[in-house]
Specification:
- By secondary structure, this protein is mainly beta.
- Helix content is about 15%, strand content about 35%.
- It contains four helices and nine strands.
- Strands 2-3-4-5-6-7-8-9 form an eight-stranded antiparallel β-barrel.
- Strand 2 and strand 3 form a beta hairpin.
């Protein structure tokens, strides 16, 4: 989120190839003990990260569908160890939705169900990992509620689904002893989803620029955890 998870990547990962792969690798990554989280900007209200048009034009129905994850900083790592990240976003009650997320790590399929419960703010959710196979070796991860916001998206005329979406996570509403120990300043993640893929250089370039325009370049830089 292969039989082992990494607590967090140290770098921002981009998709590596033109097709999903299941190739084996020489070694499995294990959780690194005793690592201290590096400093990052203090988490703000999630609305502060959103492009102005998100609060006025976000449409959940256009956010739903299948997406390839072209680049990310998250609780899993990128190629060559993990690849082929993609997800199905499915509408749930009211303005909430959930995801069926899948990737391949060291040739093994990893799957998760992620629930995003809407808040009073447009495009802002409390995100939880409700199911994983195999279970990630992060004690209490299923009780962690991440602060997650849609910060930018691209709408194409005549297209029923957004062409791309950027989601940003900073901090939690509810953590846990182990999780708070590993991420004492709060977990930070950024996910770049594209309707077309598994690679799309144009969409990825647009998303990276959009994130930088929103002041989120630091989330893509090598500042540590």
């Amino acid at each position: 989120f292969g039989s082992s998870f990494s607590v967090s990547p140290r770098y921002f990962f981009s998709a590596s190839g033109p097709a999903c792969s299941r190739r084996p690798f020489l070694a499995m990554l294990l959780i690194s003990a005793g690592l201290v989280a590096a400093s990052h900007p203090q988490c703000e209200d999630m609305k502060a990260y959103q492009a102005p048009y998100v609060t006025t034009h976000y449409n959940r129905s256009k956010h739903m569908g299948h997406y390839y994850e072209l680049a990310f900083r998250d609780l899993y790592i990128g190629a060559p160890v993990c690849d082929c990240q993609h997800t199905y976003k499915i509408a749930d009650a009211q303005d909430s939705y959930y995801e069926d997320f899948e990737q391949y790590c060291l040739g093994y399929r990893l799957a998760s169900v992620i629930t995003l419960n809407s808040t009073a703010d447009v495009g802002v959710s409390n995100q939880t990992i409700t199911w994983s196979q195999p279970n990630p070796p992060i004690p209490g991860i299923n009780q962690v509620a991440f602060n997650t916001a849609i910060v930018a998206f691209k709408e194409v005329e005549g297209q029923s689904q957004y062409e791309w979406v950027i989601e940003f996570t900073c901090g939690t509403q509810q953590g846990g002893i182990f999780f708070d120990l590993v991420f004492p300043q709060g977990f930070v993640g950024i996910n770049m989803y594209s309707k077309s893929g598994p690679t799309n250089a144009s969409n990825l370039a647009e998303m990276k620029q959009a994130a930088r325009d929103l002041g989120l370049g630091w989330a893509m830089d090598s500042w540590g955890w």
